[in-house]
Amino acid sequence: LTAYAQKHWQEKNSSIRRLSQTPLSAKLIMTAAVVLTIQVFLGAWVSTNYAVLACPDFPTCVGAMWPETAWQEGFTLWRELGLNAKGEMISPAALQTIHWAHRVFAIFVVLILGLLGLNALQASNPALPEIGRIAKLLLALIVLQVLTGISNVIFQWPLAAALLHTAGSAALVFCLVRLSQWASWSSL
Question: Which residues contact 133 (CB under 8 A, 6 or more apart)?
Answer without folding.
Answer: none
